[in-house]
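hey so i finaly got around to running the thing on Glyoxalase from Nitrogeniibacter mangrovi. pasting the sequence first so u can double check i didnt mess up the copy paste, my clipboard has been acting weird all day
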Amino acid sequence: MSRLDAIALLPRLPALNFARSQRFYLDLGFRCVWANATQARFECGATAFLLGDDYMAVVAENTRVQLEVRDVDAWWSHVHDSRLADIHDVRLGPVDTLADGARAFTLTDPSGVLWRIVQRPAAD
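ok and heres what it spat out for the 3d tokens, dont ask me to read them lol
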């Protein structure tokens, strides 16, 4: 069954303003590894996604992305201290503890995509 192994899952996120969304993701901490006129690939560690220059409000406003990180406090501090919410006119939520013990905060992107940035509790 090794022929069925997956290499990567690359969700494609919509962008209302392609250039603005690219700047947001660069400021968030992702790096753009390639781009053309209609899409770009962003990576952070082993995580990647595609950003597309195709916006539909119903898609953007109903897209949810979860990013699991090692240190949620470092991510939240980076977003907060960099004033990303003010600069990019997006919403940043506080760090909360979830029912399963994970800690997370939410962040919208400039197109309305909701990100949940999560740190899972350490396994005992």
